[in-house]
Design brief:
Length: about 80
């Protein structure tokens, strides 16, 4: 095999490598675009909304538990004062 036979093989290998590189570059850019906040549609924004909702729910749950303990404590004090 001489240079005339190797040239098309080398060109096809280079073309395939360039196509794979371009596809990989496109995928990486699209994945990184999801991690940048953009006003509500990115994965980063969605995760932030979920975290904010969880914080609000935990605060609400904490206040409910505190008021429940306070109610039980008041009932317990009333029972001891009757004796």
């Amino acid at each position: 095999m001489d240079v005339k036979d190797w040239a098309p093989i080398a060109a096809s290998i280079a073309g395939t490598a360039a196509a794979l590189f371009a596809g990989l570059r496109f995928l990486i850019k699209s994945y990184l675009r999801e991690l940048i906040p953009n006003g509500g549609n990115s994965m980063n924004d969605r995760i932030r909304r979920i975290e904010d909702t969880q914080v609000e729910m935990l605060a609400l749950l904490g206040s409910v538990v505190k008021s429940s303990y306070a109610t039980k404590a008041k009932k317990g004090r009333k029972k001891t004062s009757r004796r």
